[in-house]
Amino acid sequence: MAAQFQGGLASNNQCRVILLLDLDCFYCQVEQKRVGIDPSTPCAVQQWEGLIAVNYAARAKGITRFMRAPEAKARCPELHLVHVQVIGADGRDLHDDEIQQQDPDPQQATTTSGTGGSIG
């Protein structure tokens, strides 16, 4: 027999299930798959100079979200950084060298050519 719903909850529901989805790590895993980085490699997704997603291998090395890229690389030299996709004002995909030209910050982490390429 189907449960009757009242106010969004099943009336015969005796327990509550809380589901946690780690989308931070998932985002990093998607980028690793897209770029071709081994899943066991410490990896983080970088937006400008900060890290916005960190995989479990990097977390084990002490890397955290919102850490600055240079600090993360100093702590874990084998860390692969993938820059988020950036779309320019004209709607086209910008590559890392173009991003650096638009924001020539001397504190910027090292980059590679090609969108989403591993940095490091």
Largest sheet: 4 strands, mixed
Determine the strand fraction and express it as a percent band: 15-25%
Low-confidence stretches: 100-120
Helix content: 25-40%
Main β-sheet, spatial strand arrangement: 4-3-5-8
Number of helices: 4
Radius of gyration over all CA atoms, rounded? 19 Å
In round numbers, the mean pLDDT is 74
What does this structure look like?
- This protein has helices at 23-35, 56-59, 69-75, 96-102, and strands at residues 5-6, 9-10, 43-47, 50-54, 80-83, 86-87, 93-94, 118-119.
- By secondary structure, the chain is of the alpha+beta class.
- Strands 4-3-5-8 form a four-stranded mixed β-sheet. Strands 1-2 form a two-stranded antiparallel sheet.
- A hairpin with a 5-residue loop joins strand 6 (86-87) and strand 7 (93-94).
- The radius of gyration is 19 Å and the shape is globular.
- It starts with a strand and ends with a strand.
- The relative contact order is 0.15.
SSE blueprint and pairings:
Layout: E1 5-6, E2 9-10, H1 23-35, E3 43-47, E4 50-54, H2 56-59, H3 69-75, E5 80-83, E6 86-87, E7 93-94, H4 96-102, E8 118-119
Parallel strand pairs: 3-5
Antiparallel strand pairs: 1-2, 3-4, 5-8, 6-7
Distinctive features:
120 residues; alpha+beta; four-stranded mixed β-sheet; two-stranded antiparallel sheet; globular; disordered C terminus
